[in-house]
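Notes from hallway chat w/ T.B., transcribed later so I don't forget. T.B. wanted the structure written out for a chain they're using in a teaching module, and asked if we could keep both sequence and structure tokens in one place. Agreed to drop them here.
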Amino acid sequence: MQSAAELARSPTGMAAGLWTRRRLSWISLAAILVSLFSLLPLAFIIWIAVQTGWESVSALVFRPRVGELLANTLLLVVLAVPICIVLSVALAWLTERSSLPGARLWAWLSVAPLAIPAFVHSYAWITLVPGLHGLWAGVLVSVVAYFPFLYLPVAAALRRLDPALEDAAAAVGLGPWRVFRRVVLPQLRLAICGGSLLVGLHLLAEYGLYVFIRFDTFTTAIVDQFQSTFNGPAANMLAAVLVTCCFVLLGIEVLVRGEERYARVGSGAARQQQRTRLGRATIPCLLLPVVTALLALGVPFVTISRWLVAGGADVWRLDEIGLALGQTLFLALAGALLATIAAMPMAWISIRAPGPLQRLLEGCNYIVGSLPGVVVALALVTITVRIALPLYQTLFTILVAYALMFLPRALISLRASIAQAPVELERAAASLGRSPLKALWSTTIRLSAPGAAAGMALVALGIMNELTATQMLAPNGTRTLAMAFWAHSGEIDYASAAPYALIMVAMSLPLTWLLYVQSKRMAGR
């Protein structure tokens, strides 16, 4: 039997190595092209600013309306994100570290609000409390809609912590609260920072939620400006300010995260943390998950059920619902497939050929993926209208927008799955006489298929609930579930909108369950 060195010197081994290097060069070129294409929205913002001229830009940016929108956006982020942090950390500790009755049930109910689109949350609240408007209404609905983005990473981090560190702190006389503050909380910093960044970016990008409660943000103002002037410089300059806000959030997250080390040498203790007994505090502590579930899940389901009952059988227009469902599934599957294919070169070189170029390209994809959908849509509208008019409002353009917006979701899953497929298996298959394509298919592609499917599911979930980009870019006659829901709710026909809301939630629940199961699996549960 040949050794690894002999195999590498053999003709088949040398051919396999040469083919691998050639393939990496082509894949690197494909990754560069995808990354350059993903930078189009940023290039568009810069190009529009240069074309508009400094005087016009300053007149459009430095005006009272922009200051009002900036104040609204800052207040929303400053108020909603800390509340999400406190709520998520408290729920994660109760469900993962305490003797809370029904902890597993409450853990799932803390993730389930992700299955409800944010604008459906707002629809439910505004129909239940018609006078709910303004900043505090925005904070309330934003917290109940987006806190699971923080709960998931914090709960996963708590499951992975080594209990020996807390035992050592308690052994030197620290009380439970001081142990949590000085030992547990610092180890949750990465999870809190990552989740807070995700919540903040969603707050900047959200449109439907704030339209319902009549709270103006940059995204609502951009869409309004686009609808009134189609493609005027005012909407583009508002988009530039919104992009700046996104970059500021990214910078703050990097600064707060710091460079501390959170890993330890050795595997730690192979045991779970003993749960803290709540004793007399059980009932007061139980109130937090109960009230949270009622606000985040009870209100939407009760409201949707009430409107379904009020509308009766007449609201179930099966021909319209079937058409919207079919178009939604088609766009979700096609967009997910395109995003996964576009992410493959980047995911491949991040595992097979890591280096400075790979980190730069990957960073470009993540930065552009953090931009709001309205900015990506506005960029593609301008580019197609001014340069490639036949592509305006075509299937190609809307699928490209989906690929740009949700590329990071596909990239993360693909990268993890390719990392689990050793390159030695592929080389061994090639050395046994299989063609390069057959060797790739029989090893890496098959082993990474589950990860690719998970990434496609995450992208499809995002596309199903996408509203602003679909409204601005979809071909004439397109009517997705989100668009149909928005059209009926915009006409104050809440009963006719209820079936679409129910179907979107029903389609999202299985994917949300998969996220929950995956988070527990990664923590070894």
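Follow-up for T.B.: Residues 205 and 372 are 4 Å apart (CA to CA). Might be a good example for the class.
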